[in-house]
Design brief:
It contains 16 helices and twelve strands. It is α/β, with parallel strands linked by helices. An eight-stranded parallel sheet has the order 4-11-10-9-8-7-6-5. A two-stranded antiparallel ribbon has the order 1-12. Strands 2-3 form a two-stranded antiparallel ribbon.
């Protein structure tokens, strides 16, 4: 068993064990990948204030997200194709999150279905919705999430049109994988992954296949999906979705102060400050750089969750100290899942929690609720002098 001391250790194992097309799917951004890179590099610009001779006993990383107590303010973000990173990936990630005590978010574009995950877990999880042109399908999807007792609906707003990711196009990404000579050659080197996938519950999109008329294979699914993202999504439609759900609603993809004000206006319970991990609008600012002005625009009327770029407990601390009420990790737990399945997700969470706890202590704090700007050294102009 390798000694895992940080998320990067999991990433190295992940890259060895998972087929290239799925590694590239997780580890890429759109176009030049500038935003993808800056999501992490901008965290490095923020420094921490070391404090000494402070009572460090009795520390706690516990917090609250959307009114529920959590082991630490970190939720597992919705990631499409998770079940291709490891057999039954969504189920394994949800179980790890449940046992650890943090929220799990299931993607619309998951391999395991809502029902699969609900059957395999004992506590409610969040469900992420992509708005699509097939309104009947969307209504039925929301009802399925209700029937599964999902505790929050996460509506993704920044994927009405797909940002171009060069690697996905060149790899011919699909679920299940397209068998080209290059793909076959790579799969032959990933025999452990292949053996696990033979026993997987599903290998296609479980929330779609069997729930849409005429969808029977990967090719028909691809054609349907490419035409389905709702280009006409606006705040009126978001309000209707909120009314349809009639529960906790989280709006994901807020990266502008004006949009934060609109999210408050439609009555969102929380917003996720996110640029989709750098996978949509390349050239947009990083989530951590945009966080302060978006929180200011929200006026304290809505919870602000930071997504995109978090790879450590120190990143979590910086986001919380900048004012976020919680954070989300995507790639960090996917690395663990691909590396070691459910145990890998647990390991990723343990690594982040330990880093958060130790860093908090060295900053002179005992509780995440006490973190603030006083714990940080932020470079002048970090929040932007943009015209």
């Amino acid at each position: 068993m390798p000694v895992i001391t940080n998320i990067q250790d999991l990433k190295r194992i992940y890259e060895r064990r998972v087929p290239r097309m799925f590694f590239d799917y997780a580890e890429s951004g759109s176009w030049t990948e500038q935003t993808f890179r800056e999501n992490t590099s901008d965290f490095e610009q923020i420094r921490l204030r070391q404090r000494v001779a402070v009572d460090m006993s009795g520390r706690s990383t516990r917090g609250q997200m959307i009114g529920k107590e959590v082991a630490m303010p970190v939720a597992l973000a919705p990631v499409g194709l998770t079940g291709m990173q490891h057999a039954d990936g969504e189920i394994k990630a949800a179980r790890a999150a449940e046992e650890f005590g943090v929220p799990y978010t299931l993607s619309t574009m998951s391999i395991n279905s809502i029902e699969d995950v609900a059957e395999a877990t004992t506590k409610p999880f969040w469900f992420q919705l992509y708005t699509m042109n097939d309104e009947d399908y969307v209504r039925r999807l929301i009802q399925r999430a209700k029937d599964a007792k999902c505790s929050a609906l996460v509506i993704t707003l920044d994927l009405q049109i797909l940002g171009q990711r060069h690697k996905d196009l060149k790899n011919g990404l699909s679920a299940p994988p397209k068998l080209t000579p290059k793909t076959i050659a790579n799969l032959m080197t990933k025999w452990t992954w292949g053996l696990q996938m033979l026993g997987a519950k599903r290998r296609e999109f479980g929330n779609i296949v069997g729930h849409v008329e005429g969808i029977s294979d990967a090719s028909s699914l691809g054609a349907w999906t490419s035409e389905q993202f709702d280009l006409s999504l606006d705040w009126g439609k978001i309000a209707k979705l909120k009314e349809m759900w009639d529960g906790k609603v989280i709006l994901k993809g807020i990266l502008d102060a004006e949009d934060a004000k609109m999210a408050v206006k439609v009555g969102a319970d929380a917003i996720i400050v996110s640029n989709h991990g750098g996978r949509q609008l390349d050239g947009a600012l990083s989530s951590i750089r945009m966080l302060p002005q978006i929180l200011d625009a929200g006026g304290g009327e809505v919870e602000g969750i930071l997504d995109s770029g978090i790879r450590s407990g120190q990143d979590v601390l910086k986001a919380l100290a900048m004012g976020a009420t919680g954070t989300m990790i995507g790639r960090a737990y996917i690395y663990g899942l691909g590396a070691m399945g459910q145990q890998g997700v647990t390991t990723a969470l343990e690594v982040i929690q330990k880093e958060l706890d130790t860093t908090m202590a060295l900053c002179g704090e005992r509780n995440v609720a006490d973190l603030g700007r006083h714990n940080l050294l932020i470079p002048k102009g970090f929040e932007g002098n943009w015209l």
